[in-house]
Design a protein that fits this description.
The chain is an alpha+beta fold. A 6-stranded antiparallel β-sheet has the order 1-2-3-4-5-6, with no helix packed on it. The longest helix is centred in the last third of the chain and has 23 residues, at 110-132. It has a domain at 20-94. 24% of the residues lie in helices and 35% in strands. It has 2 helices and 6 strands, in the order H-E-E-E-E-E-E-H.
Amino acid sequence: MFVLTVLVAVAAARPDKRTSEEVVPILRDDRVEFADGAYSFDVETGDGIRRSEAGQSQGDAGAVNMAGDYAFTFPDGQEFYLKFVADESGYKPESPFLPVAPAFPHPIPQFVLDQIAFAAKEDANRELDQARGDYVGYD
């Protein structure tokens, strides 16, 4: 009886996912490589995955500037899309699915702004005193 219960539980818990035997067709696979290091590719599969990218070698250091996008469909039918640029200033993705930092929750209080201004004035005065040789500090 216990074995029968375990078999029923295992069968009921079987995930509804694709098996490794299913083959997803490649609908498009265009790749171009140039002698100067530039490249581009466009790939699309039968299950809705799309990826495009183009890049160019930058100088002798081996750095590559690239831009592209990719998309796929979540199991619930919602489509994910992301475009990106990757260059000397970093990787910059854009997508409505990426989190956005919240706006600062409130204005900075005036007493904080006053303190920042006062500290900046003290720093400037200290630099003037040091330049004149009048500075007495903890150096």
